[in-house]
Amino acid sequence: MKFWTRFKRILKNSVITGIPQIIATRSNFRKKLKLLVFIGCVIGFFWQTFAFLKVYWTYPTVVDVQYYFPDDFELPAMSVCSSNGIKSKLFCQRFSELCYPNTSLVEFCDTHAFYCDPNNNNPGNVSYPTVTSRQLPPLPRSEYQAMGAQPNDLVSNCLIYESPKIIDCT
């Protein structure tokens, strides 16, 4: 009996909400009713906790995958850069006084290897401009564009391989 008396005293001083009220109640009916409500709340707490943890541990994710295969599509942009802004052949045909003829291609390639083909495939009697890009004569932009590298000079062939067909993009 000493155990139950001590156990009731511990429960009366308990910090768990509801336990001291249940123990302090004198009517057996009210005590059982409060105990039943308390047990129902504890069972509901554990039930919701385990239901939540079950969903949490399964780690559900929502993935919406849609496949779309268009018949036609817009090609991406392509940028091609060239360090040769003006073709020397066209420039020297128009401004021969600003170019010098190069009859000795070997001598020229020794001093200006950047302009020469490493395989020595250069034609004879090639003219090269003697001015820098800042010393060019004042011309409208359209004329310099006409003397410059054209898109077909930079990209000679462009194909897109899309199974089962090949698309020409030049």
Give the spatial strand order of the biggest sheet. 1-2
What is the typical, i.e. mean, pLDDT? 77
In DSSP terms (H or I, runs of 4 or more residues), the helix count works out at 7
Structural class based on helices, strands and sheet pairing? mainly alpha
What share of residues are in beta strands?
5-15%
Largest sheet: 2 strands, antiparallel
Uncertain parts: none
- What is the global morphology? rod-shaped
Give the total of beta strands. 4
Share of helix, binned: 40-55%
**Elements, N to C (H/E):** HHHHEHEHHEE
Distance separating the two termini: 101 Å
Calculate Rg over CA atoms: 45 Å
How does this structure look, described?
The chain has 170 residues and is mainly alpha-helical. It is 43% helix and 9% strand. It is built from 7 helices and 4 strands, in the order ααααβαβααββ. It has a two-stranded antiparallel ribbon with strand order 1-2. Strands 3-4 form a two-stranded antiparallel sheet. A hairpin with a 2-residue loop joins β3 and β4. The longest helix is centred in the first third of the chain and has 31 residues. The protein is rod-shaped, with a radius of gyration of 45 Å. The protein starts with a helix and ends with a strand. InterPro entries: ENaC.
